[in-house]
Write a structure and sequence with these properties.
Largest sheet: 10 strands, mixed
Strand content: 35-45%
Oligomer: single chain
Number of strands: 20
Radius of gyration: 22 Å
Number of helices: 3
Order of helices and strands: HEEEEEHEEEEEEEEHEEEEEEE
């Protein structure tokens, strides 16, 4: 992330320290439950998390395959999503009217790959093969703001494509309009949050108490946290990735959850700010919540 970009974001950090997180850069003294008066236990040392970066997955939009008769808003987006899911229907699934942007689900045959038609101002249309449907049929989320600080707005979309017990995954797309009017999609790679955040998480056991840390912040896990053996202490970012758009502040927030067995037994939540610039995604400003 450039210095200009970092300064811009440092001025508007959005997440207060969680009330139950104990932040610091060195050991702190916290009394044990019913301890002898002269004894205490030191918490694990913490340090800055820094930032994580990865290049985007880049896809060029295709020209519209035909002159589609574009529908207007239906009953509501959830209704349109379910109508689209019945097959053979072109449906408006998300839009930002003031920016002239719209997200249409293209008609598809059962068991075929989903395709998206994006409209961005006037008659500029482009098709993309995006995953955006699960049996739960959550409609995509969309916003339009200057995500990279270059003075031009980007189209930002979060598509729900992973669901199940303990699973809730959205895929983040940042779409840029090129000088010739064509559209290019920059997708946040899943490994950036699932693998790299997992590497930042640490689980410590002290005196029968368990602490999960992410950078400078740590939380104590609930008293009934299951006992685990030394070899199983492997926290991960789990299978939750949801995105919050704050257009007024040009901020994207990643929200997820951490587990300790690479399963779906979640023990804490986390958040990070998502920065996008020149085809690179960066996660920083991490917070951990009990």
């Amino acid at each position: 992330m450039s210095n200009k970009r970092r300064k811009r974001h440092e001025k508007r950090r959005f997440c207060p320290l969680p009330a139950l997180a104990l932040a610091g850069c060195g050991p702190a003294e916290v009394p044990l439950e019913n301890p002898p008066a002269e004894k205490s236990v030191s918490l694990p040392e913490t340090g800055p998390a820094g930032s994580l970066s990865a290049p985007a997955i880049v896809t060029q939009g295709r020209e519209a395959a035909e002159a589609y008769d574009l529908p207007g808003p239906g009953q509501n987006f959830h209704h349109e999503m379910n109508r689209w899911g019945s097959g053979g229907v072109l449906a408006l699934l998300a839009e930002v009217p003031e920016a002239g942007t719209a997200f249409y689900g293209l008609p598809y045959a059962k068991d075929a790959h989903e395709s998206v038609l994006l409209r961005w101002g006037g008659d500029r249309l482009a098709e993309f093969d995006w995953n955006f449907a699960t049996p739960r049929m959550f409609p995509p989320e969309m916003a339009c703001f200057d995500a990279d600080g270059d003075g031009e707005d980007e189209l930002i979309a979060a598509c729900y494509y992973g669901s199940g017990t303990g699973v809730s995954i959205y895929e983040l797309h940042v779409v840029e309009k090129n000088p010739d009017g064509t559209l290019t999609d920059y997708t946040l790679p899943e490994g950036l949050w699932q693998e790299q955040i997992s590497a930042l998480l640490r689980l410590d056991e002290l005196g029968g108490r368990y602490f999960l840390s992410l950078g400078r912040e740590l939380v104590e896990l609930v008293p009934d946290f299951p006992q685990i053996t030394e070899g199983e202490q492997s926290p991960s970012a789990g299978w939750i990735a949801e995105f919050l758009f704050l257009p007024e502040e040009s901020i994207i927030v990643l929200r997820g959850a951490a587990d300790c067995w690479h399963t779906t037994y979640y023990v804490a939540n986390y958040s990070a700010e998502v920065c996008y610039e020149d085809g690179i995604f960066t996660l920083w400003n991490f917070h951990l919540y009990s």
